[in-house]
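Cross-posted from the bioinformatics board.
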Amino acid sequence: MENLIRFGEKFFDELEIAVYRSRDVSASVELNEISMASTRGGAVTVIRGINEGRLGLAIIDSDDPERIKEAIEQAAKMAKLNGRDEKWVSLPEPGAYKEAPKPNYGLKEASPDILVEKLVRGIKLAREKDPNAVVAGGEGGVSWEKRHVVNSHGVDVFQEGGAAFFFLELVGRKGDVVTPGIFDFDARRDLNLDVDGVVDRAVQRVRWAYNVEKSRNEEVPIILGPWAIAGLLSYTLLPAFSGERLVKETTPLAGKVGEKIASEVLTIYDDPFHPLSLEPTVADGEGVPTRKNVLIENGTFRGFVWDNYWAKVNGTESTGNGKRDLKSGGIGIDFHNVVIENGKRSLEDLIAEIDRGYFVDGFQGAHSSNPDNGNFAVTANPAFLIEDGEVKGASVFLVAGNVYELLNRASEITREQTVMPFMTTMTTPFIKFENVKIAGK
Amino acid sequence: MENLIRFGEKFFDELEIAVYRSRDVSASVELNEISMASTRGGAVTVIRGINEGRLGLAIIDSDDPERIKEAIEQAAKMAKLNGRDEKWVSLPEPGAYKEAPKPNYGLKEASPDILVEKLVRGIKLAREKDPNAVVAGGEGGVSWEKRHVVNSHGVDVFQEGGAAFFFLELVGRKGDVVTPGIFDFDARRDLNLDVDGVVDRAVQRVRWAYNVEKSRNEEVPIILGPWAIAGLLSYTLLPAFSGERLVKETTPLAGKVGEKIASEVLTIYDDPFHPLSLEPTVADGEGVPTRKNVLIENGTFRGFVWDNYWAKVNGTESTGNGKRDLKSGGIGIDFHNVVIENGKRSLEDLIAEIDRGYFVDGFQGAHSSNPDNGNFAVTANPAFLIEDGEVKGASVFLVAGNVYELLNRASEITREQTVMPFMTTMTTPFIKFENVKIAGK
């Protein structure tokens, strides 16, 4: 890599070479049968070079040095055609990196067989526990990635590691009732995926859903589950922490560092080193050391997250949140593992205290939310009516509101905490909110 | 491949091996600058084997015979764990294939440089023609694919070919007005991408959009452009032609062959051999000969389209519409090139005759439509108010309705016809609809 950097310096004032080599095995379920087993992989190299403030960025599907040289030349041609980016400062310098946790090499050469077995076991268990349930879909996967980021300022970080995930979607049919699709999942840095737990939790909710309860317009306590929380916050709250949005004036959190923006029960941080993190990375996509960044501490907003570019534009420092999009090659501000700190009591305890309210497993339509102000309008489905401390059946309703108003209504957080490997990776408990206005459907 | 089929027959009653090798070059624009140039490619092999009605499906990222053998064994293990599919009949037999048009080998080894040049030219032209316009985004791409499908019944079809596309997104800023993103594009089987035409059309609409006109609740003629049509029909109408949906009773077109379902001005067919088609394929994803399939002829519904599996379940024949999803490996019913037959007069002529109405360039929210009944609720944006035969400015409004009701309101089709390379590939003119109810916003 050293040679390639020297080669690139003939064309550029500064340059970065990032090489990714990945291997992904997976298996899928469709309607109680295994529908597919796959093994895929490959290499991608991204060249980012800057000459007199002009950017060149080239991507190739190879880690072969000769092809990397060609890509450097490609990026150099492109930089010549571009205008100067007056805001450009520089690529990052090396930093003080933590010691990376040892990767679990057992995942490196995993066979799809293991996933097929786990899925077959999940299907069998689910059908035994509920003969009316169909495993409509599901997937198991193991990914392994090697990443090597070097730049002409001396950054040189190599990391590798992997994670495994497993999910099932159950649909129950009983009499005239067809339940909504009920998802449950597990994700971790080893192969001890909790198939039994996934099935137990999903079957429980399918059972609840055999009874359908009408919802109505009311103001009630609601408990949101990890999937609902991750869906809603990914589109309404998390973008607001981006330093790029601070510079571009598209975050409602501008000027609010140190202010209370949520209920005191809420503490949220981004932490690649959390014990449940799927990717305990020591450096971000441009080689800046990662760290735990507190976003909200007991309801108080603590600060924005930054990549190298926008931090320097703003005269501050990267928080190690530069993540590379392998499709566009570009670096954007994003999270490693957003953690919502858990509480003391169990979900069961919280449900037992509700006279009338709802437990929301998932939201539909969160992607249409507006992160500029936090407004959202979503359909709660799957969702469940709670009466007299017990789940009575499935309901569908609408919630339209503002995420900051909602966060101020949080009253308790559960002890249970789940890693959501989809969308932004989040480690989240269940959260109870008081007096939420809902529209029956 | 013959050897691999023989090898697979040790494990399976029938099997299919489909090998795909692709190469994609592309370049992108962000905010007036070239943001990326990429060259990617690779091979994918999908094994589909059936033993005593049990399916095994394996995917690998290679076309190496040894790895294909491993994948066959993987698929065989999986088939053993699956239940019998009682509906399974057989893989297809070879058919009578048309002669494939000669591919344009000029695209096979295209360099991203050509695309960078075209994008640079597009940016320059756009900014010359409208100094208030920013090229917010854009992309040029050339793809080449080799496909080889063989099965144990003697199907053995090799095809290769490529296509190129180009699009720009312009945003204009004048005084307090920021226009919506205005897209225009070209796609074809050679590199003569019409950069000037893309810029001219986009700049014209940006100019229109500098004037903002309020919309109101009214019943008016609207003209839909190719992007709006492709978006709306992909989610509301096209799924209804699927034979799988006929079998599963989820299409409103069941029992309606020969009935009038749209205005007489509308003729719609799927035709991979249309002169503008980007992929003139002679066989579908499972090696069944393709053909022109008429869907709607002068307003009358002519029939469903089928892949091998659902056709045999239904006791009919595949129409050559089995398309492979390289992510899941599965075959699904889909289209090659949906053509809406064009008319005689120009878009200009149609606009000139409208006293008050709208031209809709794009719809938002079409993906939430219900293909089971054709109901939709979309936001028209970008859209333009027409008064006294002239475009007056940009408007945003809502249209909620049913696609079949809308299709019955079609009154005229333009001569101009455009290939839409996104979502379902469609070749579509502009269509005028009468007395459409809209809700002002």
